[in-house]
Amino acid sequence: MYQLNFVARGRCTDLLKFGRLYSLLLVLAICLVASSGSAFGEASASTVSSKAKKHTVHKSAKKPSRSHIARAGRRAGVILTRTGRRVRRIFNPWTEPTFADSTIGDSIEGDDLVIRKAAADALGPYNGTVVVADPQTGRILSIVNQKLALRGAFQPCSTVKVIVSFASLREAIVDANTPVRLAPRYSIDMTTALARSNNRYFAHLGEELGFERVQKYAKLFGLGEKAGLDIPGEEPGYLAPEPPKSGVGMMTSFGDGIRLTPLELASIVTSVANGGTMYYLQYPKNQAEVQNFVPKVRRQLDIARFIPEIRPGMMGAVEYGTARKAVFDQTDPVLGKTGTCTDTAQPGVHLGWFGSFNDVGKNRIVVVVLLTGGRGVAGPIAAKVAGGVYRNLAQQNYFGSETTTTPTKLVSMQNCCRQ
Fold first, then answer.
1. Do the beta carbons of residue 274 and residue 335 sit within 8 Å?
2. 3-state secondary structure string across 107-134
3. pTM for the full model?
């Protein structure tokens, strides 16, 4: 009985101390029976249960429920009809093309063909537009993908931060070198915030400015208006008449409530590049108009004294910030501002902006890039495209040659100019 009690408790090894052969054989026999009826039996049942579960899942996979198919269909961009037999495509934001031939349909009779080739080669297969302008005259030298540039207005993303910076400096809310405390142990100044595109910093400035002052400076820089003069097909951007639901901070950090065109951004960057003169952008249709080109001033912005405070941030964006891919020559600095966001009017469509100008050389140009599409589209990629434009031109010594366009006179179209 003593031995059987040990066996019943599963302690068969204790019985091995008894040296008699019959006892050892008896213990082994009892252990085998006990194991087959307990541990082995549980393993067998578990295995059967597991197989049954696998079989059940397999059957379920063959005949998924209608709700399961509907959920999967929505994720994949398809839905079932009422009959359950047919499916059709529905809107899928990731179907917005990232790659395309962006040169189709362009009219190039008035383009600078050297500029155009440099821009088209840099843009490559991306779905986007490149606008190149002369900041000293307002002449558009080339537009790759004219349809997108003239008829497309998109959320400006972080490019709006250039306007916010000037507004904040002009209103004495902040200066470029004074750190703004955003958290107990976190402060940042304007130069770094521009270079790294810090959203919290510019949301803070927006709240300090308030909607009315943000709107005032946005209008001064031409938002919501056509940037060009008699350019066929050009459509204006949009500026909200009231604060967006997301708040003024989102307006000044991501551009909520604003629709920007590539020509509008080119106009803004042109004004910064030349010291504050906002020209009407003009796009010659042919070489005769190129020969008779006359710059026309739209307004004079009182920003010259603030440009030295903005420039380090725009240069820092290229040197160590969000636009590092725009570097093409260490001796020829480029200044610019990137923008990356998902367009609120087209959910899921990614935008990549970059507005820039070169700071040395006898030929100064403004290069604006807008990319649209799905994954992989961002401001740094737009900066890379712009860098390619500068690089392609530098290889032809474009920035070391004499300026080909020398305006004979300036015509002012508006006398309101200094604000």
1. no
2. CCCCCCHHHHHHHHHHHCCECEEEEEEC
3. 0.75
Phi, psi of 402 (to 5 degrees): -70, 145
Structural tokens at position 259: 């629709």
Rounded-to-integer distance, Cα 125 and Cα 134, Å: 25
**3-state secondary structure (DSSP) of residue 391:** helix
**Spatial distance between the Cα atoms of 159 and 118, rounded to a whole number of angstroms:** 24
255: left (phi over 0), alpha (psi -120 to 50) or beta: left
Distances (CA, A) of 141 to 294, 367, 393: 14, 10, 13
Residues 213 and 239: their CA atoms lie apart, in Å, by 13
The two tokens of residue 307 are: 């440009």
CA angle centred on 198, ends 193 and 199, rounded to 5°: 135
Phi (first) and psi of residue 307, to 5 degrees? -60, -40
What is the chain's pLDDT, residue by residue, as a tens digit (419 residues)?
434 343 344 444 443 343 444 444 554 444 444 444 433 333 333 333 333 333 333 333 344 444 444 444 444 344 444 445 444 444 344 456 888 899 999 999 999 999 999 999 999 999 999 999 999 999 999 999 999 999 889 999 999 999 999 999 999 999 998 899 999 999 999 999 999 999 999 999 999 999 999 999 999 999 999 999 999 999 999 999 999 999 999 999 999 999 999 999 999 999 999 999 999 999 999 999 999 999 999 999 999 999 999 999 999 999 999 999 998 876 678 999 999 999 988 888 999 999 999 988 889 999 999 999 987 899 999 999 999 999 999 999 999 854 444 343 344 343 333 33
Using an 8 Å Cβ cutoff, are 194 and 339 in contact? no
Give me the DSSP letters along 294-326. Answer: --EEEEE-S-TTTHHHHHHHHHHHHHTSTTGGG
Dmax (CA) for the chain in angstroms is 123
Q: 334 has which bridge partners?
A: 358
Q: Quick one: CA torsion of 338, 342, 343, 345, rounded to 10 degrees?
A: -170
Between CA 27 and CA 325 the distance in angstroms is 79
H/E element, 193: helix 190-196
